[in-house]
């Protein structure tokens, strides 16, 4: 009689717990909780790995961009050097022409001085 009253006064979760225990399903509930905890840990690790992968992919993208820009910069520097070389060659040619003309004038002046 006392047990029946006790059961009647129990709250629904308490009754469910008592039935689960009597039916032997309590052990499976513990295993289910343990499996859920394992799944949560695995999901957290998976999220961490995905974040790291995303960071790594971004790093690779930035490194490819740096490599590309470095090559462009080197090509630009090369073109500037080529342009400077060509301008210097032209200036050198002009100066050599001036030197030749001045030497010719000097030679003419020397001839004039010797003839006078």
Description:
The chain is mainly α. The protein has one domain (2-115). 95% of the residues lie in helices and 0% in strands. It has three helices and no strands. The chain has helices at 2-9, 12-23, 26-115. It is rod-shaped. 0% of the residues are buried. The model has no long low-confidence stretch (mean pLDDT 92).
Describe how the helices and strands are arranged.
Elements: H1 2-9, H2 12-23, H3 26-115
In short:
The chain has 116 residues and is an all-alpha fold.
User: Ranges with pLDDT <50 over ≥5 residues?
Assistant: none
Radius of gyration: 47 Å
β content, as a range?
under 5%
Mean pLDDT: 92
Give the helix level as a range of percent. Answer: over 70%
How many angstroms separate the termini? Answer: 156 Å
Reported for the largest beta sheet, the result is: none
Count helical runs: 3
Total individual domains? 1
Structural class: mainly alpha
The strand count comes to: 0
């Amino acid at each position: 009689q006392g047990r029946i009253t006790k059961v009647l006064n129990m709250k629904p979760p308490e009754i469910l717990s008592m039935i689960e225990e009597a039916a032997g399903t309590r052990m499976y509930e513990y295993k289910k909780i343990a499996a859920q905890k394992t799944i949560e840990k695995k999901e957290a690790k998976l999220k961490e790995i995905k974040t790291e992968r995303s960071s790594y992919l971004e790093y690779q993208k930035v490194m490819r961009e740096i490599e590309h820009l470095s090559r462009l910069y080197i090509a630009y520097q090369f073109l500037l050097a080529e342009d400077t070389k060509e301008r210097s060659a032209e200036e050198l040619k002009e100066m050599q022409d001036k030197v030749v003309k001045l030497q010719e004038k000097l030679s003419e002046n020397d001839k004039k001085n010797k003839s006078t």
